[in-house]
Fold:
Amino acid sequence: MSLLNFIAAFNREMEQTAREMAAEGKNVLVSQLSGAGTDALENSLRKRTGKEAGVIRRVGMSFERHGYYLEHGAGRGQGGTVGSRWKDPQGRVRTTNTASLGKANSGNRRAKKFIEPTLKKYEVIVADRAQDLVGDLGLQMVLGVFDTKIRI
Structure:
């Protein structure tokens, strides 16, 4: 097997893992959340992979912004600890109301963890699969370069 074929097999394996992760993320989302915006959030959840030099180096998911708010229990009047700045349609600079700072995941807006458990689970799976494939690649390269036989 050539190096290019090995990289192609590695990329296919990582793509498949990313698909499985996105599918499980959707299943968890549907099973734990209901209400307005859930369908749009489910449809927006997609796998993401990033390549460097033709090899997949990053595996993850993307989804619409309101999914982040659900995940962390943030919303109008219940912001994070830092706040934010933005420009409104008239061009005025707006900032987070200081009265809402630090109120995320409190009151009637509790965090609904639907992505974090999936990411934690697949963090281990991706690391194990990458370790196995890269280890095999290293072994094949050593055997090919040094032309030796290993007896076990």
